[in-house]
Amino acid sequence: MRFRRTTKADPLVDDLRRVLPADRVRAASLERSIMGRDASIFEGGQAGPVCFPISTEEVQGCVDAARRHGRAVVPRGAGTGLAGGSVPLDEPVVVVTTKMNRLLSVDVDQRLAWVQPGMINLDLSRAIAPHGLHFAPDPSSQQVCSLGGNVGTNAGGPHCLAHGVTSAHVQAAEVVLMSGEAVVLGDPDGWAPGLDLRGAYVGSEGMMGITTAIAVRLTPNPPAVQTLLLAFDSVDAAAHTVSAVIADGIVPAAIEMMDKNIIWAVENFVGAGFPTDAAAVVIVEVDGLPGGVTAEADRVAELAEERGGRVRRAADDQERALIWKGRKSAFGAIAQIKPNYYLHDTVVPRTRLAEVMNQVYEIVEEHDLQVMNVFHAGDGNLHPLLLYDRREPGVMERVHAAGSAIIEASLAVGGVLSGEHGIGIEKRDFMPLMFSEADLDAQGRLRRAFDPDEMANPGKVLPTGASCADVNALTKVPEGVWG
Amino acid sequence: MSARVSLGIDPEELASCVACGLCLPHCPTFRVTGEEWASPRGRISAMRQVQDQGAAIDQAFLSSMDTCVQCRGCEPACPSGVPFGSMMEATQAELTRRRRLDWRRWGFRVLGHRRLLNLLSRLLGVVQRLRLLPSKRLGLPKIPLAQERLRATGSDVWLFTGCVMDAWQRSTHAAVKRVVEAAGAGVALPGAGAACCGALSLHAGLEDHARSLAIRTMRELEGSAPILVDSAGCGAVLKEYGKHLGTPEAVAFSERVLDVHEWLSDRSDRLPSAGERGQDLIVAVHDPCHLRHVQRAHQPVAEVLSHYATVVALDDDGLCCGAGGAYAAMQPDLAVSIRERKLEAIGRSGANIVASANPGCTIHLANAGVAVRHPLEIVDEVLDHDG
Fold first, then answer.
1. Higher pLDDT pick, B181 / B278
2. What is the DSSP letter of B139?
């Protein structure tokens, strides 16, 4: 039999193919459906034409063509976003940056590199490793996520506790605005005078333009590193140890926590010797000069033992790498238990960690669900993963209700909605819980200063209806989210 | 156009991907294209569109499936253990049922007939020498016109010889056999019944043909002696007979199968020393996908080699070289792009020779001008057979 092509005739596609070669503008219905989702739970997206530019000029060409046809534009990197930020709504032109993946230049003395947005985070660190440098933000998806996506979400990672999140490592960004103009925000040679437009742009989730090049700061590799794996018989003891370490004046490079269920799944995958009998484990990494590192590691061990913790120190780089592989594989390991997860990203004051975690367990039990916690304990950034099988009737309502309750509990103690994954579409309608009408209006106006017609990634972050927050909408499921 | 089609994929398997994307950088076709439909996550999404949501099997679907090398590099990368290989095999079987005119349907039949294959191979060799064949484009090596005859020397172990490898690269089997004998074992050789393991047929979706080859092979390699394999692709399938056929005999058979390096690494103390001969050799070990990702038995190659030469690792996380059995012939452009990355890694390693324990990889890399040998050919050359 013959196999049909299912590409519809579309004048927009013809126009885009005047800018890019035909094989880099894809429009088959299957291809558009595949681009309909990222790593979040949102499955209701539908892409228009999918473009793979390789230069700033080609991105400008795509934006111009979309504008002429009155079509919105959604940028996409590796598609590992956890909040649906790059999910296309209403068939926009999707501009994928994966083919723009080159390291443009490295200035070792200035510790600065220009990269294209599709370069993979870990590929950058590997490329500059011979110079004794790395890119500090290390999201758990760093082996696959793109630097453009890191800029879009202002991504964090375990080692951002000491080094700061992406914004602190982006010196400048070249951005194609929806007018088709390419501008450089920030100054690669120093801090630009006047308003920090770079600062406003980093974390804007594709709603101000498309990143086409990034000047990233490079961080020297620490001379010494020690990694400790602390095991506790209770979540409370683990959480209190985290607080105690910081209260003691130590700022480790990373403090990560995993609870019982996720320890099992992760250990099953990596076999790093995680204690599957523990109620929680805490990974603490200290780095710096050798003397200081040893002193700090000893003190962390002491604080853990005082709270009943068992201490294991990674003996070498291999053991250390395996522990981190386990931590960074956690979300992906979920399907060993259930095929779907709904992930939250709230941040709470470190001193309230134990309290909020206990509330999370209660909420989940009330809604007859399973939860796993794996998160950046050092900065109080929770990642409760609600596990479910979407084929089970009625489960979505319970998942959504539990998610709302977790957010409310986090905000009630002075927390925030998202630490690092972004708002995207999944968390969009929770925004009014956190921000007043005036706050949201100000955010909308900032966005329109860059993108007056709201053609860049519309429908994300800010609740629809722009500035009027409709609290009732929170009880409804955003259309399509639970597809 | 189409009524809803099932691809025959186990629904639980199909549901088991959470779409985290951690497989993407481990997929050779995603690495060189950056296109989601050329990634494991995108391919699973495409399978779901067809099997769960009734999307048509169209050109885009076909291209997404057929560009897969089936290297299975995504499997060890997946924290949830999604069985991608088995999903792709089911999909290919369904597609093959629909593609009656595929040349592989009759072409691969030859693989099970040793005499015919040898005859056709010699013909091909003649045509090749008359320069009537774009050999490199087709991913072919220089095919020998005459080959030495291998003779059995005992019954301690079987050496599985396979189809194309025996017809085109029998000198590799000869070297492997000498090394195994040097370790003190008498080698038995299978007859024409075990002419082919069925790997190429299985990957092309010709399940029935693969099954009949498997049954013949099991019958031929009787007894309880270990079955040593010097081709990673064959070894992977022989080790999965138990899974594919599901019979107790097949499970017991698969348990006897060892990559020859696995067997040797336990006996390397019994091998004669190399003397001075291996000193200048810097060998980069290329891990064939079906040894590293499927058999997960790539370490013994470096272990065995390290007794005879300086071994260096490649820094590309074991990414595929693009050979993929018949892939280099079916998808030549992608196969070459994927190979470019491998060549860069080889260049960075500083090695003067590359060891590859799979015939397909050897041919594909040699076609790019790489000095590449089977690991045991390298050992055989430096071994002091008299000492």
1. B181
2. T
Taking an 8 Å cut-off on Cβ atoms, the answer to whether B57 and A5 are in contact is no
Question: Given this model, what pLDDT does residue A326 score?
Answer: 93
Interface test with A, best of B9, B17, B24, B337 (most A CBs within 10 A): B24
**Residue A155: partners with Cβ closer than 8 Å, 6 or more residues away:** A137, A139, A145, A149, A165, A166, A420
Instruction: Report the CATH number of the B11-98 domain.
Output: 1.10.1060.10
What are B179's two structure tokens?
Answer: 């090394």
Angle at alpha carbon of residue B178, lines to B175 and B183, rounded to 5°: 130
CATH number at residue A91: 3.30.43.10
Query: In this structure, what token pair is assigned to residue A177?
Result: 């605005």
Gap between the Cα atoms of A51 and A22, Å rounded: 10
CA–CA separation, B17 vs B217, rounded Å?
35
C-alpha distances in angstroms, A97 versus A32, A58, B23, B119, B164? 16, 11, 18, 51, 41
Q: Which of B9, B10, B18, B53 to mutate to test the interface with A (most CBs of A within 10 A)?
A: B18
Q: Which CATH number fits domain B272-382: 3.30.1360, 3.40.50, 2.30.29, 3.30.379?
A: 3.40.50
Which helix (H) or strand (E) covers residue A319, if one does?
helix A317-328
Nearest alpha carbon to residue A214 among A102, A332, A348: A102
pTM exceeds 0.90, yes or no: yes
Which domain-ending residue is among A96, A127, A145? A96
What element of type H or E holds A285? Answer: strand A280-288
Same domain membership, residue A257 and residue A327 = yes
Q: Are A24 and A51 in contact (CB under 8 A)?
A: yes
For residue B171, the surrounding DSSP H or E stretch is: helix B170-182
Asked, for residue A387, whether it belongs to a domain, the answer is: yes
In this complex, is the C-beta atom of A143 within 8 Å of any C-beta atom belonging to chain B?
yes
pLDDT tens digits for A66-85?
999 999 999 999 999 999 99
Contact residues of B toward A, CB < 8 A? 1, 15-22, 24-25, 33-37, 41-42, 45-46, 49, 55-62, 64, 78-82, 98-100
Of A28, A336, A389, the CB nearest to B80: A336
- The ipTM of this complex is 0.92
Domain holding A405: CATH number?
3.30.70.2740
Average predicted confidence (pLDDT) for chain A? 92
Give dist(CA A61, CA B98) in Å, integer: 41
**Of A264, A298, A332, which marks where a domain is finished?**
A332
Residues A207 and A266 in one domain: no
The edge-to-edge listing of strands for the beta sheet with B372-373 is B310-313, B282-286, B353-356, B372-373
Q: What is the pLDDT of residues A248-259, one digit of tens each?
A: 999 999 999 999
R_g over Cα of chain A: 23
Boundaries of domain holding A58: 11-96
- The tally of domains found in chain A comes to 4
- DSSP string over B228-291: EES-HHHHHHHHTHHHHH--HHHHHHHHHEEEHHHHHHTSGGGSPP-TTTTTT-EEEEE--HII
- What is the Rg, in whole angstroms, of the alpha carbon atoms belonging to chain B? 21
Dihedral sign (CA A224, A230, A235, A239): negative
CA distance, residue B49 to nearest chain A CA (Å): 8
The per-residue pLDDT of chain B, averaged, comes to: 91
